[in-house]
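Example (one chain per record):
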Amino acid sequence: MAADDTTFGTEMRGYRKEEVDSALHELRRELDKANAERTESAKEVKRLLAVNEDLQAELDETGSPTYAGLGTKLENTLRVAEEQSTRLIGQADIDAENLRTTTTAEMAKLRADTAAESQRVMDAANSAATKLLSDAREQAESQLSRAQADAEALTQDAIREAITLRGAVATEAAEARATAQREAAAMRAEAERAAAEVKAAATREATEAREAAAELARDAEKGRADYENENARLRADLARDLEQGRTDLARELETGRAELEAEIATAREALANETAAAQEKLANDTSAAYEKLRVETQTALARQRAEAKAAADALAADTEAARAALEAETTGARTALEAEITGRRAELEAELSGARAALKSEVESTRAALEAELASSRAELEHELTTGRADLEARTTAAHNQLKAETASARASLAAEIAEKQSSLEAEITERRASLEAEVNETTARLKNDVEKQTTDLARDIARQRAELASEAETTRAALAHERDETRSTLEREATDARAALEAELAALRDEAEKQALARHQEATAQTKQYLDEAQVQLAETARQAAAKRQETAHLDTTSKNEARAVRDAAETKARELVETAEARAKALVDDAEKRSAQLVSDAEERLRNIRIERDTVAGYFENLRGVLQQAEKISTES
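Predicted structure:
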């Protein structure tokens, strides 16, 4: 048998072909072995039939002694022999009917067991399909939940970034406005003595500050519009992905349901066809066996009746001839015969006691008749001997017929059972192999489709997230560059204007103006440094978010691969379990067939041994009776 722990290694698209072919070759070798054992059983049955024919030939060689010198009660003896023959034939018919009933019951039980096993296999397949569908549904729901959570997290991150940017812009605008107001107040407080040019410069600075505030407001509006556009795009992508996921899941569920319904319909149709074929075959075999047994029984009965009639006619003729001779000799030889019969009676009783011990259960009535007739007269003794001989011949014939009937019935039952076992085993192996191959192919195709779909979806998500991250980084980088250039231009313009205004001031205010210019330059430098620091912080935050997104993408990739690997391992485990179960069932069926064949052969041999013992006993009894009859005829002739 194939090893119960046989496992198939996996490759890119399923099991390794060499290992699967090896397992199939092993199963074929086991099937050939079972066929060879069945052939050996058939040879053994043929040998037993040959032994039976030899025994019949030995029984025929026993021969029929002469019936000369029999008594006057031959008619009663023949009637008793015919009644015993009829009773034995009826008992043989009853035994044959019991054997047919037992065989029918065993066939019905085997058919019921096969139907129950088929139903159990169908239930197991339905359970496995339901479990696979539920697992696929749970995986789809889990992936959908993760996608929704990721989309929600991305939305919240975008909202937080927009709020942060809006707050930063508002803070910068407020600080710029406050700075401008403070500078204007300081300029008004310290330059009250300045001329109209200083007032114009202050007015110009205020105007530029308002323009800067307006530009900042426009930038904020632009950022808000960009955020709304990005948010709308993300929501549209999410809705499209959700719809695609729902469509894929519905299509997979519909495909799985259709395949399962097709498999169930195919299995039911195959089971119905197999059941109908088995029932038709059983009915045909039963009818043929019954008809054959009936014909053989009628033929044997007619032959026995013809032989009995011929023997009766011969005995009647011999009896008439012997009666005339005996009537002439009876008067002169009666005294001597009675004395000799008295001595012979003791010897005959001793011989008959041994025969009665061996055939106590079969010739009880014959022994009583012999003892009664021996006690009365020589004629009754001869008549009893004839009756016993005829009874033994009838019993021998009936036993022979019964042996033939039992052998034929056992041979037919054994052949039918072996054929049915073989066909059932081959059909079940074929069906299990086809079901296993279909299930393995279906599981492999489904696993391949799931892996390809998950890989495609994951690649699409990764590409989309990379594009979004690149777009977001580029937008942030452009905004920072724009803000940095604008701030630098503003500072340069303010410094130029301040220098031009300071050059136009009075010489008296030059020192103070230089101090104020120095203070403003230092403040501008600090503000520029602050802007640069904030830009670097935002750039670092953007880089950190990009790294987090890349890490999340790698985690999603690893998780998807692990899930695919787990699904594939589960499918391989299930396929391996199905293969082991099929091998175990095949082994159990083969062992059961071997045990039944051995039991039938053993029963047939036991019956043959019993019949051989009975034959030896009957032959011995015949020899003793033949000796007694020969001695009686010799005495009659001498007298």
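Caption: The first strand starts at residue 10 and ends at 11.
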